[in-house]
Amino acid sequence: MLLMPDFLNFLLSGKKKAEFSIASTTSLVDPITRDWSWELIDKFGLPRKIFPEVVEPGTKLGTLLPSIAKVTGISPDTPIIASTGHDTASAVVSVPARGNNWAFLSSGTWSLMGIELNHPSLTAQAMKYNFTNEGGVKGTTRFLKNIIGLWPIQECRRYWLEKGNEYIYPELNGYAKDEGFVKAWVDLNDPRFYKAGEMPEKIIAFLNETGQTVKTNVGFIIAVVLESLAFSYRSVINEIEVVTGSKISELHAVGGGIQNELLTQLTADAIGSTVFAGPVEGTIVGNIGIQAIASGAVPNLKVWREIVANSFEIKKYEPLNTSYFNENEKNFKSILK
Prior knowledge:
Blueprint: H1 4-13, E1 18-19, H2 20-23, E2 29-30, E3 35-36, H3 38-43, E4 54-55, E5 59-63, H4 66-72, E6 79-82, H5 87-93, E7 102-107, E8 110-117, H6 124-128, E9 132-135, E10 141-148, H7 151-162, H8 169-179, H9 199-209, H10 218-244, E11 250-254, H11 261-271, E12 274-277, H12 282-295, H13 301-311, E13 315-317, H14 322-334
Parallel strand pairs: 1-4, 7-11, 11-12
Antiparallel strand pairs: 2-3, 5-6, 7-8, 8-10, 9-10, 12-13
Helix pairs in contact: 5-12, 8-10, 10-11, 11-14
C-alpha cells in the first residue's frame, strides 16, 4: 500500500517506503510510536504485509533509477529523498517562525490551523474540539484542525460567472471592504456550505433562517463569508489555548489564501494578535527545505526558517479592530448549530 507521494518516490527510486507525514493521515498510524498501529490494523483484518516501513521526512531512499536517469538526462547519482509528502506538513516547514507560542495557518480553498508540538496531544479536550495529531518533521506533531477556507468565495464567484458576471478576486474584496463590518455571519460548519452550487443563495437562506440582516449585493455576501471565516479562526485559536494552557502570541499564515489581504487583516483583528503572512507557495518552499536539510546543505529546521524569513516577502498585519470581534462574539456563537 503506497500513498500517492510514496508511489511517486517508488517510481523514482524503486524503494517502497511510507513517509510518516502522509501516513499519519490514514488514521492507521500510532502518533506516539510514529509507526503503523498494528493493533488497529489487525482489528480491521488488514494484511500486515501490505504496509511498508514507515520512514521520517527527510529520509534518503536511494538514488534515481537508471532507467529514469537515461530518459531524463539527470544524473543517476541524484538522491531521492522522502520529503514531507503531506502538503500541509511541507507548508509548516516553510513557516518563518522564531521562538515559541506561535500558531500556523495554511490558507487556501481549505484552511488548516494549528501548532507544532514535540509530542502528540491525546487529551479528552483535544478530542472534544476535534483536533488531529498529524506527522511533522524532526519528531514533531502538527496539532491542527481543518476549517473551511476560501471555498465559499470560489463558489460564489463561480455562481456569478454562470450568471454572466466575471468578477476577479481583488474586485470582490474591494466590494466587501466597501461594505465595512456587516454584523452578519454564517456557520461555515453547516454541511450545505461544503457542497458546490448556488453558494450565494445558501448564504442568504442561512441568514434568513437565523434572523440576521440580509442584503443580496456582492460586497455584502463576500463580507459575510470573510467575517465568518475570521470568527472561525478566532474560535480555533481559543481552543488551542484551552488545550495547551498557553497563549498564542502570533500567527504565521502561508499559502495562496494570504493573497486575500482583507481576510488576513480580519484574521489579525479577530484573534487580537499579529499575523505574519508568507510565503505564498509554502508547500513548495517547505519541500525544498526538507531536501536541503536532508542533503546537508542546511543544518536544521531553525536555520531553514531563518532562510525563509530572509528570502521571501513576509507581510505583517497588526490588529486594528479587535473590539468588533470581542463585542460580537456572543452574537456569532448564537448562530452556530
